[in-house]
Amino acid sequence: MHQPAITHLAAADPAVADLVEGEARRQYEKIRLIASENYVSTAVLEATGTVLTNKYSEGYAGKRYYEGQQFVDQVETLAIERAKAVFGVEHANVQPYSGSPANLAVYTALVNPGDKVMGMALPAGGHLTHGWGVSATGKWFDAVQYGVRKDTGRVDLDEVRELALAERPKLIFCGGTAIPRTIDFPAFAEIAAEVDAVLVADIAHIAGLVAGGAHPSPVGHAQIISTTTHKTLRGPRGAMLMSDAKHAKALDKAVFPGLQGGPHNHTTAAIAVALGEAARPAFRDYAAAVVANAKALADALIERGFDLVSGGTDNHLILVDLSNKAVAGKPAAQALDRAGIELNYNSVPFDSRKPFDPSGIRLGTAAITTRGLGVEHMPRLAAWIDQAVAASDQAELDRIAAEIRELLAAHPMPGWV
Protein backbone atom coordinates (compact mmCIF):
# COMPACT_ATOMS: atom_id res chain seq x y z
CA MET A 1 0.00 0.00 0.00
CA HIS A 2 0.93 3.67 -0.33
CA GLN A 3 3.48 4.90 2.21
CA PRO A 4 2.84 7.22 4.05
CA ALA A 5 -0.55 5.56 4.56
CA ILE A 6 -3.57 7.39 3.14
CA THR A 7 -6.14 6.08 5.60
CA HIS A 8 -7.89 9.43 6.02
CA LEU A 9 -8.14 9.87 2.26
CA ALA A 10 -9.51 6.36 1.90
CA ALA A 11 -12.22 7.09 4.43
CA ALA A 12 -13.14 10.51 3.03
CA ASP A 13 -12.85 9.82 -0.69
CA PRO A 14 -12.41 6.15 -1.63
CA ALA A 15 -12.51 6.94 -5.35
CA VAL A 16 -9.43 9.16 -5.19
CA ALA A 17 -7.70 6.84 -2.72
CA ASP A 18 -8.18 3.90 -5.07
CA LEU A 19 -6.59 5.87 -7.91
CA VAL A 20 -3.62 6.83 -5.73
CA GLU A 21 -3.14 3.23 -4.66
CA GLY A 22 -3.41 2.10 -8.27
CA GLU A 23 -0.75 4.57 -9.36
CA ALA A 24 1.53 3.51 -6.50
CA ARG A 25 1.22 -0.14 -7.50
CA ARG A 26 1.83 0.74 -11.14
CA GLN A 27 5.04 2.56 -10.22
CA TYR A 28 6.09 -0.42 -8.09
CA GLU A 29 5.49 -3.03 -10.79
CA LYS A 30 7.03 -1.27 -13.80
CA ILE A 31 10.55 -0.46 -14.88
CA ARG A 32 10.30 3.31 -15.13
CA LEU A 33 12.61 4.74 -17.77
CA ILE A 34 11.01 8.14 -18.39
CA ALA A 35 14.02 10.45 -18.18
CA SER A 36 12.13 13.21 -16.38
CA GLU A 37 10.81 10.94 -13.60
CA ASN A 38 12.21 9.42 -10.43
CA TYR A 39 11.17 8.13 -7.01
CA VAL A 40 11.35 10.61 -4.15
CA SER A 41 12.15 9.47 -0.64
CA THR A 42 9.42 8.85 1.91
CA ALA A 43 10.68 11.94 3.74
CA VAL A 44 10.09 14.08 0.64
CA LEU A 45 6.62 12.57 0.28
CA GLU A 46 5.81 13.40 3.88
CA ALA A 47 7.03 17.00 3.54
CA THR A 48 4.90 17.46 0.43
CA GLY A 49 1.78 16.43 2.35
CA THR A 50 2.17 18.61 5.44
CA VAL A 51 0.05 21.46 6.82
CA LEU A 52 2.43 23.89 5.11
CA THR A 53 0.00 23.67 2.19
CA ASN A 54 -2.45 25.65 4.34
CA LYS A 55 -0.28 28.75 4.50
CA TYR A 56 -0.20 31.64 2.01
CA SER A 57 3.14 33.47 1.85
CA GLU A 58 3.30 36.14 -0.82
CA GLY A 59 6.73 37.76 -0.89
CA TYR A 60 10.09 36.55 0.41
CA ALA A 61 11.38 35.58 3.84
CA GLY A 62 11.30 38.62 6.09
CA LYS A 63 9.31 40.62 3.53
CA ARG A 64 5.88 38.99 3.38
CA TYR A 65 2.48 40.52 2.74
CA TYR A 66 0.75 38.20 5.23
CA GLU A 67 1.33 37.60 8.92
CA GLY A 68 2.09 34.26 10.55
CA GLN A 69 5.27 33.49 8.59
CA GLN A 70 7.52 32.57 11.53
CA PHE A 71 8.01 28.98 10.43
CA VAL A 72 7.47 29.35 6.69
CA ASP A 73 10.28 31.90 6.53
CA GLN A 74 12.61 29.41 8.19
CA VAL A 75 11.58 26.66 5.79
CA GLU A 76 12.26 28.80 2.73
CA THR A 77 15.53 30.14 4.11
CA LEU A 78 16.67 26.58 4.84
CA ALA A 79 15.88 25.50 1.27
CA ILE A 80 17.76 28.50 -0.13
CA GLU A 81 20.85 27.93 2.00
CA ARG A 82 20.91 24.24 1.09
CA ALA A 83 20.61 25.04 -2.62
CA LYS A 84 23.48 27.50 -2.36
CA ALA A 85 25.62 24.95 -0.55
CA VAL A 86 24.83 21.96 -2.81
CA PHE A 87 25.41 23.85 -6.07
CA GLY A 88 27.96 26.41 -4.89
CA VAL A 89 25.99 29.43 -6.09
CA GLU A 90 25.71 32.96 -4.75
CA HIS A 91 21.92 33.18 -4.99
CA ALA A 92 18.96 30.80 -5.14
CA ASN A 93 15.22 31.28 -5.53
CA VAL A 94 13.16 28.21 -4.60
CA GLN A 95 9.70 29.63 -5.36
CA PRO A 96 9.08 28.88 -9.09
CA TYR A 97 6.19 26.47 -9.50
CA SER A 98 7.85 24.44 -12.27
CA GLY A 99 10.55 24.58 -14.91
CA SER A 100 8.67 26.47 -17.60
CA PRO A 101 7.65 29.36 -15.30
CA ALA A 102 11.21 29.45 -14.00
CA ASN A 103 12.52 29.90 -17.53
CA LEU A 104 9.86 32.51 -18.24
CA ALA A 105 11.09 34.41 -15.18
CA VAL A 106 14.56 34.52 -16.76
CA TYR A 107 13.13 36.21 -19.85
CA THR A 108 11.08 38.58 -17.69
CA ALA A 109 14.17 39.57 -15.73
CA LEU A 110 16.61 40.05 -18.60
CA VAL A 111 14.93 40.87 -21.92
CA ASN A 112 11.96 42.67 -23.42
CA PRO A 113 9.38 41.38 -25.91
CA GLY A 114 10.88 41.36 -29.39
CA ASP A 115 14.47 41.03 -28.18
CA LYS A 116 16.65 38.40 -29.82
CA VAL A 117 17.27 35.20 -27.84
CA MET A 118 18.94 31.91 -28.72
CA GLY A 119 18.41 28.33 -27.67
CA MET A 120 18.61 24.75 -28.83
CA ALA A 121 15.91 23.73 -31.32
CA LEU A 122 13.25 21.43 -29.90
CA PRO A 123 13.78 18.67 -32.52
CA ALA A 124 17.50 18.66 -31.71
CA GLY A 125 16.87 18.12 -27.99
CA GLY A 126 16.08 21.60 -26.67
CA HIS A 127 13.10 22.69 -24.60
CA LEU A 128 9.92 24.47 -25.67
CA THR A 129 10.79 27.43 -23.46
CA HIS A 130 14.12 28.00 -25.20
CA GLY A 131 12.34 29.98 -27.91
CA TRP A 132 10.51 27.29 -29.87
CA GLY A 133 7.72 28.66 -32.04
CA VAL A 134 4.69 27.11 -30.32
CA SER A 135 5.87 28.37 -26.91
CA ALA A 136 5.15 31.84 -25.60
CA THR A 137 8.91 32.34 -25.63
CA GLY A 138 8.94 31.81 -29.38
CA LYS A 139 5.98 34.13 -29.89
CA TRP A 140 7.10 36.98 -27.66
CA PHE A 141 10.80 37.03 -28.52
CA ASP A 142 12.85 36.97 -31.72
CA ALA A 143 14.23 33.48 -31.24
CA VAL A 144 16.97 31.76 -33.21
CA GLN A 145 17.86 28.10 -32.75
CA TYR A 146 20.98 26.01 -33.01
CA GLY A 147 20.95 22.26 -33.54
CA VAL A 148 23.22 19.25 -33.80
CA ARG A 149 25.33 17.81 -36.59
CA LYS A 150 23.62 15.16 -38.67
CA ASP A 151 26.71 12.95 -38.77
CA THR A 152 27.44 13.01 -35.01
CA GLY A 153 24.21 13.99 -33.29
CA ARG A 154 26.23 16.48 -31.22
CA VAL A 155 26.29 20.24 -30.94
CA ASP A 156 28.83 21.88 -33.24
CA LEU A 157 30.07 24.76 -31.10
CA ASP A 158 31.76 26.43 -34.08
CA GLU A 159 28.35 26.66 -35.74
CA VAL A 160 26.82 27.94 -32.49
CA ARG A 161 29.46 30.69 -32.37
CA GLU A 162 28.87 31.64 -36.01
CA LEU A 163 25.12 31.87 -35.39
CA ALA A 164 25.61 33.93 -32.24
CA LEU A 165 27.97 36.34 -34.00
CA ALA A 166 25.50 36.76 -36.87
CA GLU A 167 22.38 37.18 -34.71
CA ARG A 168 23.81 38.86 -31.55
CA PRO A 169 21.22 37.50 -29.07
CA LYS A 170 20.85 39.06 -25.64
CA LEU A 171 20.22 35.68 -24.04
CA ILE A 172 21.62 32.23 -24.82
CA PHE A 173 20.20 29.01 -23.39
CA CYS A 174 22.23 25.81 -23.18
CA GLY A 175 20.75 22.52 -22.02
CA GLY A 176 17.53 20.79 -22.99
CA THR A 177 15.30 17.74 -22.67
CA ALA A 178 16.90 15.12 -24.93
CA ILE A 179 20.64 15.71 -24.80
CA PRO A 180 22.59 12.51 -24.08
CA ARG A 181 26.01 14.17 -24.03
CA THR A 182 27.97 16.40 -21.66
CA ILE A 183 27.11 20.09 -22.03
CA ASP A 184 30.26 22.14 -22.58
CA PHE A 185 29.47 25.05 -20.29
CA PRO A 186 32.89 26.77 -20.66
CA ALA A 187 32.58 26.81 -24.47
CA PHE A 188 29.05 28.25 -24.32
CA ALA A 189 30.30 30.85 -21.83
CA GLU A 190 33.02 31.96 -24.24
CA ILE A 191 30.48 32.38 -27.03
CA ALA A 192 28.09 34.31 -24.80
CA ALA A 193 30.86 36.62 -23.63
CA GLU A 194 31.94 37.30 -27.21
CA VAL A 195 28.47 38.60 -28.14
CA ASP A 196 27.78 40.19 -24.74
CA ALA A 197 24.88 37.82 -24.02
CA VAL A 198 23.76 36.37 -20.70
CA LEU A 199 24.25 32.60 -20.60
CA VAL A 200 21.47 30.54 -19.02
CA ALA A 201 22.17 26.89 -18.21
CA ASP A 202 18.98 24.85 -18.06
CA ILE A 203 20.06 21.83 -16.02
CA ALA A 204 16.58 20.48 -15.29
CA HIS A 205 17.54 17.00 -16.45
CA ILE A 206 21.05 16.83 -15.04
CA ALA A 207 20.72 18.80 -11.77
CA GLY A 208 21.13 15.66 -9.67
CA LEU A 209 24.17 14.63 -11.66
CA VAL A 210 25.69 18.09 -11.18
CA ALA A 211 24.91 18.00 -7.45
CA GLY A 212 26.43 14.54 -7.20
CA GLY A 213 29.56 15.35 -9.18
CA ALA A 214 28.65 13.14 -12.14
CA HIS A 215 28.37 16.02 -14.64
CA PRO A 216 30.40 19.25 -14.87
CA SER A 217 28.80 22.23 -13.15
CA PRO A 218 27.73 25.40 -14.97
CA VAL A 219 28.62 27.50 -11.92
CA GLY A 220 31.23 30.09 -12.86
CA HIS A 221 30.28 29.82 -16.53
CA ALA A 222 26.54 30.61 -16.70
CA GLN A 223 25.27 33.71 -14.95
CA ILE A 224 21.82 32.09 -14.57
CA ILE A 225 21.01 28.45 -13.79
CA SER A 226 17.48 27.11 -14.16
CA THR A 227 16.36 23.71 -12.97
CA THR A 228 13.43 21.62 -11.92
CA THR A 229 13.73 19.84 -8.57
CA HIS A 230 12.52 16.39 -9.63
CA LYS A 231 14.18 14.28 -12.35
CA THR A 232 17.73 13.34 -11.33
CA LEU A 233 17.68 15.67 -8.29
CA ARG A 234 15.05 13.38 -6.77
CA GLY A 235 12.89 16.08 -5.20
CA PRO A 236 9.25 17.19 -5.52
CA ARG A 237 7.67 18.71 -8.60
CA GLY A 238 9.03 22.24 -8.43
CA ALA A 239 11.84 24.46 -9.72
CA MET A 240 14.69 26.73 -8.70
CA LEU A 241 16.58 29.63 -10.20
CA MET A 242 20.20 30.16 -9.21
CA SER A 243 22.53 32.95 -10.21
CA ASP A 244 25.47 35.17 -9.44
CA ALA A 245 24.84 38.09 -7.10
CA LYS A 246 24.55 40.54 -9.99
CA HIS A 247 21.34 39.00 -11.33
CA ALA A 248 19.74 38.03 -8.00
CA LYS A 249 17.44 41.03 -7.53
CA ALA A 250 16.13 40.97 -11.11
CA LEU A 251 15.33 37.26 -10.92
CA ASP A 252 13.56 37.57 -7.59
CA LYS A 253 11.41 40.44 -8.89
CA ALA A 254 10.59 38.43 -12.01
CA VAL A 255 9.35 35.46 -10.00
CA PHE A 256 7.42 37.64 -7.52
CA PRO A 257 5.63 39.85 -8.24
CA GLY A 258 6.41 39.45 -11.93
CA LEU A 259 4.88 36.06 -12.61
CA GLN A 260 3.35 34.48 -9.54
CA GLY A 261 1.87 35.10 -6.11
CA GLY A 262 2.38 32.96 -3.04
CA PRO A 263 4.84 30.06 -3.23
CA HIS A 264 3.78 26.48 -2.52
CA ASN A 265 5.23 26.12 0.96
CA HIS A 266 4.76 22.36 1.18
CA THR A 267 6.81 22.03 -2.01
CA THR A 268 9.47 24.37 -0.63
CA ALA A 269 9.80 22.11 2.41
CA ALA A 270 10.13 19.04 0.22
CA ILE A 271 12.80 20.82 -1.86
CA ALA A 272 14.70 21.51 1.35
CA VAL A 273 14.51 17.83 2.29
CA ALA A 274 15.69 16.72 -1.16
CA LEU A 275 18.60 19.15 -1.07
CA GLY A 276 19.53 17.85 2.35
CA GLU A 277 19.64 14.36 0.87
CA ALA A 278 21.69 15.60 -2.08
CA ALA A 279 24.34 16.93 0.31
CA ARG A 280 25.03 13.47 1.73
CA PRO A 281 27.86 11.21 0.47
CA ALA A 282 25.36 8.54 -0.61
CA PHE A 283 23.94 10.92 -3.19
CA ARG A 284 27.28 11.03 -5.00
CA ASP A 285 27.18 7.24 -5.22
CA TYR A 286 23.66 7.43 -6.62
CA ALA A 287 24.61 10.03 -9.26
CA ALA A 288 27.60 7.97 -10.39
CA ALA A 289 25.42 4.85 -10.56
CA VAL A 290 22.83 6.66 -12.71
CA VAL A 291 25.50 7.40 -15.32
CA ALA A 292 27.05 3.94 -15.08
CA ASN A 293 23.65 2.33 -15.64
CA ALA A 294 22.91 4.57 -18.62
CA LYS A 295 26.22 3.73 -20.26
CA ALA A 296 25.76 0.00 -19.62
CA LEU A 297 22.22 0.09 -21.00
CA ALA A 298 23.36 2.07 -24.05
CA ASP A 299 26.11 -0.47 -24.77
CA ALA A 300 23.66 -3.35 -24.41
CA LEU A 301 21.16 -1.71 -26.76
CA ILE A 302 23.86 -1.08 -29.35
CA GLU A 303 24.83 -4.76 -29.18
CA ARG A 304 21.23 -5.57 -30.08
CA GLY A 305 21.27 -3.33 -33.12
CA PHE A 306 19.62 -0.21 -31.78
CA ASP A 307 20.72 3.11 -33.27
CA LEU A 308 21.46 5.63 -30.51
CA VAL A 309 21.56 9.34 -31.27
CA SER A 310 25.19 10.50 -30.87
CA GLY A 311 26.22 6.85 -30.50
CA GLY A 312 25.72 6.62 -26.74
CA THR A 313 25.42 8.71 -23.59
CA ASP A 314 27.44 10.64 -21.03
CA ASN A 315 24.61 11.17 -18.56
CA HIS A 316 21.30 9.56 -17.54
CA LEU A 317 19.58 9.86 -20.91
CA ILE A 318 19.50 7.67 -24.01
CA LEU A 319 17.80 8.72 -27.25
CA VAL A 320 17.04 5.85 -29.63
CA ASP A 321 16.24 6.20 -33.33
CA LEU A 322 14.05 3.22 -34.24
CA SER A 323 14.12 3.81 -38.00
CA ASN A 324 16.23 0.71 -38.55
CA LYS A 325 13.80 -1.40 -36.50
CA ALA A 326 10.85 -0.82 -38.86
CA VAL A 327 8.72 0.53 -36.02
CA ALA A 328 7.85 4.10 -35.03
CA GLY A 329 8.42 5.50 -31.57
CA LYS A 330 4.78 5.74 -30.49
CA PRO A 331 3.72 2.12 -31.09
CA ALA A 332 7.04 0.96 -29.65
CA ALA A 333 6.48 2.99 -26.47
CA GLN A 334 2.94 1.65 -26.17
CA ALA A 335 4.10 -1.95 -26.58
CA LEU A 336 6.85 -1.43 -24.02
CA ASP A 337 4.33 -0.01 -21.55
CA ARG A 338 2.22 -3.15 -21.89
CA ALA A 339 5.39 -5.14 -21.26
CA GLY A 340 6.05 -3.33 -17.99
CA ILE A 341 8.62 -0.84 -19.31
CA GLU A 342 7.59 2.81 -19.13
CA LEU A 343 9.29 5.39 -21.36
CA ASN A 344 8.22 8.02 -23.89
CA TYR A 345 8.21 8.31 -27.66
CA ASN A 346 10.39 11.19 -28.80
CA SER A 347 11.51 13.00 -31.92
CA VAL A 348 15.10 12.49 -32.97
CA PRO A 349 17.28 15.05 -34.78
CA PHE A 350 16.31 15.42 -38.45
CA ASP A 351 13.24 13.26 -37.85
CA SER A 352 11.15 12.65 -40.98
CA ARG A 353 8.08 11.82 -38.91
CA LYS A 354 5.68 14.16 -37.08
CA PRO A 355 6.26 15.01 -33.38
CA PHE A 356 3.15 13.11 -32.24
CA ASP A 357 4.27 10.02 -34.15
CA PRO A 358 8.07 10.30 -34.18
CA SER A 359 10.87 7.88 -34.96
CA GLY A 360 12.43 7.64 -31.54
CA ILE A 361 12.09 6.73 -27.89
CA ARG A 362 13.76 8.40 -24.91
CA LEU A 363 15.07 6.48 -21.89
CA GLY A 364 16.52 7.56 -18.55
CA THR A 365 18.09 5.58 -15.73
CA ALA A 366 17.47 7.77 -12.66
CA ALA A 367 14.38 5.95 -11.36
CA ILE A 368 15.69 2.42 -11.84
CA THR A 369 18.91 3.43 -10.09
CA THR A 370 16.89 4.70 -7.14
CA ARG A 371 15.21 1.26 -7.03
CA GLY A 372 18.65 -0.33 -6.72
CA LEU A 373 19.12 -1.78 -10.20
CA GLY A 374 22.74 -1.84 -11.31
CA VAL A 375 24.88 -2.37 -14.37
CA GLU A 376 24.46 -6.12 -13.99
CA HIS A 377 20.75 -5.73 -14.80
CA MET A 378 21.18 -3.62 -17.93
CA PRO A 379 21.81 -6.42 -20.48
CA ARG A 380 18.62 -8.13 -19.34
CA LEU A 381 16.72 -4.85 -19.57
CA ALA A 382 18.04 -4.30 -23.10
CA ALA A 383 16.88 -7.80 -24.01
CA TRP A 384 13.38 -7.07 -22.71
CA ILE A 385 13.27 -3.82 -24.70
CA ASP A 386 14.39 -5.64 -27.83
CA GLN A 387 11.83 -8.41 -27.35
CA ALA A 388 8.97 -6.01 -26.62
CA VAL A 389 9.68 -3.82 -29.64
CA ALA A 390 9.66 -6.89 -31.87
CA ALA A 391 6.78 -8.70 -30.11
CA SER A 392 3.96 -9.89 -32.36
CA ASP A 393 1.32 -10.63 -29.69
CA GLN A 394 0.18 -9.62 -26.21
CA ALA A 395 1.24 -12.95 -24.72
CA GLU A 396 4.89 -12.10 -25.33
CA LEU A 397 4.43 -8.70 -23.68
CA ASP A 398 2.64 -10.32 -20.72
CA ARG A 399 5.56 -12.72 -20.26
CA ILE A 400 8.03 -9.83 -20.12
CA ALA A 401 5.84 -7.92 -17.68
CA ALA A 402 5.69 -10.93 -15.35
CA GLU A 403 9.47 -11.29 -15.41
CA ILE A 404 9.84 -7.59 -14.62
CA ARG A 405 7.48 -7.84 -11.65
CA GLU A 406 9.53 -10.75 -10.35
CA LEU A 407 12.75 -8.75 -10.63
CA LEU A 408 11.35 -5.59 -9.04
CA ALA A 409 9.90 -7.48 -6.08
CA ALA A 410 13.46 -7.62 -4.74
CA HIS A 411 13.96 -3.86 -5.07
CA PRO A 412 11.91 -1.77 -2.63
CA MET A 413 10.23 1.42 -3.77
CA PRO A 414 9.93 4.56 -1.64
CA GLY A 415 6.22 5.26 -1.26
CA TRP A 416 5.03 1.64 -1.37
CA VAL A 417 5.09 -1.16 1.19
UniProtKB/TrEMBL annotation:
Compartments in which it is found: Cytoplasm
Transferase found in the keyword field: yes
Gene Ontology BP annotations: glycine biosynthetic process from serine; methylation; tetrahydrofolate interconversion
Keywords, alphabetical: Amino-acid biosynthesis, Cytoplasm, Methyltransferase, One-carbon metabolism, Pyridoxal phosphate, Transferase
Domain Serine hydroxymethyltransferase-like: residue ranges: 10-385
Recorded GO MF terms: glycine hydroxymethyltransferase activity; methyltransferase activity; protein homodimerization activity; pyridoxal phosphate binding
Principal cellular location given in the protein's record: cytoplasm
Biological or metabolic pathway of the protein: Amino-acid biosynthesis; glycine biosynthesis; glycine from L-serine: step 1/1; One-carbon metabolism; tetrahydrofolate interconversion
Cofactor: pyridoxal 5'-phosphate
Enzyme nomenclature, EC number: 2.1.2.1
Catalytic activity, reaction form: (6R)-5,10-methylene-5,6,7,8-tetrahydrofolate + glycine + H2O = (6S)-5,6,7,8-tetrahydrofolate + L-serine
Amino-acid biosynthesis in keyword set: yes
GO cellular component, one term: cytosol
N6-(pyridoxal phosphate)lysine modified-residue sites: K231
InterPro entries on file: PyrdxlP-dep_Trfase, PyrdxlP-dep_Trfase_major, PyrdxlP-dep_Trfase_small, Ser_HO-MeTrfase, Ser_HO-MeTrfase-like, Ser_HO-MeTrfase_PLP_BS, SHMT-like_dom
Site feature: Plays an important role in substrate specificity: H230
Positions contributing to (6S)-5,6,7,8-tetrahydrofolate binding: L122, G126, H127, L128
Subunit annotation: Homodimer.
Family membership noted in the UniProt record: Belongs to the SHMT family.
Function: Catalyzes the reversible interconversion of serine and glycine with tetrahydrofolate (THF) serving as the one-carbon carrier. This reaction serves as the major source of one-carbon groups required for the biosynthesis of purines, thymidylate, methionine, and other important biomolecules. Also exhibits THF-independent aldolase activity toward beta-hydroxyamino acids, producing glycine and aldehydes, via a retro-aldol mechanism. Thus, is able to catalyze the cleavage of L-allo-threonine.
Name of this chain's protein: Serine hydroxymethyltransferase
Species per Swiss-Prot/TrEMBL record: Actinokineospora auranticolor
Gene transcribed to yield this protein: glyA
